[in-house]
Amino acid sequence: MSIRQRTTKLIARRHDLNYFKRMSPLRAWQWWLAAVALVTAVLWFSGNSFVHGNAAFSAGPMSSSHAVFGQRCELCHVPVLRSTSWTPSFGMRRHVPDSACLSCHIAAPHHPQETVRTPMCSSCHTEHTGAMHLAAVADSGCTQCHAQLSRRAGILQVAASIHSFAKDHPEFRALRSVEEQEAFPLKFSHAEHMQKNLSGLHGKVTLQCGSCHAPTLEGISGYTTRAREHPVRQGAAMAPVSFEKSCRSCHTLEFDAHISAEAPHADVAVVRDFVTQQIGDFAKAHPEVVADEIRRWPTLAPLPERVAEPAPRTQQEWVANRIVYAERILWREKCGLCHGERSAEFPVSTTGRFPAIGAPKQPHAWFASAVFSHGAHQAVACEECHTKALTSSRGTDVLMPSIATCRRCHDGASSPQGPAVKSGHAESGCFLCHVYHGADVADLSTARHKLDELLPR
Question: How many Å apart are CA 69 and CA 190, to the nearest integer?
């Protein structure tokens, strides 16, 4: 049986060449459904824009700082189509110009004489990512410059390449500048004060770190009103240790057995005037005691390496003798414990000189270019970070924890925007410690009159 041979021309004759010119029921339904979907989308978009305004174009909720005027997009964004007398504004451009931010905020440029370029505000402060604090800048906002940092002229005073805190951040400056330690004249041993059952004024006492150190923000250079209002900055710095609050309860400044008042912890000239006034007033109020001691002289044992003072013959000589003895007690035994040297050669006022007592020069805030919050670390014991304090015997020791100590928790494995991780991984973003616009409150303040205009009434 022979097979029929068909050419392509014969096969093409079997197809209707006008098929696509005629509307079939199925194709008619397709066209109608597409038209209805298009009209529905246009109506929904128009209605949603009419009801919700420009909020329909929003990428997400505003931050807590700007939520008060979150429905007025035109305050920051430039409209795609500006409003006219008979049409509203339509659409919003993505990027916010710096002029919109500077209309409310007074922000100084970031090292304008040194940096090659200053990034836009919106390149660091990203809005519409939720009700987060806008100062929580992503590390990419910092590393866009600091990963490969360059300057216009001169030598860089900071690290030129930092990608993250956990990887290549340099050691803290306080520990790098160890040559400055000898400028601290205070003699103090943490190791001795951390021992158990110390002899106190009212019996045995065991001190804790919190017995002398307390967090505060008041009176600390570099911590301003803006930092105090920040929830992360509460209890940021440690207050300077006060002799009156922390030391006097054990280290009294008594200077005379007849006088219950203690000498003030002040300049040596003030102390000498106080001692002179107190002993003089006692002699005037109790002449009988003075006369009795003159008859029974000497009543005071001489100090080491000192001969007994000659017996006074008058009340004035008795006062002068008691002043000399009181000053020797204070200068050598009291003040000399922490300031200067405890020796018989310690100069006293009878020679016309005051003791050379130097004030302690330890900085109250070690981080000059960063902020640290002790309040945020209150769940961690002090000695877990300040490990050297348990063995330190000199007042010149810098007891700051190293960056390796911080990296045990701040290891770069957690971020506010990232997924939840197991405990022990703390956020390590640049914004936690560094303030871009500086520490002065005037660098980033809100124009109050402008804000009043924006708030709804």
Answer: 53
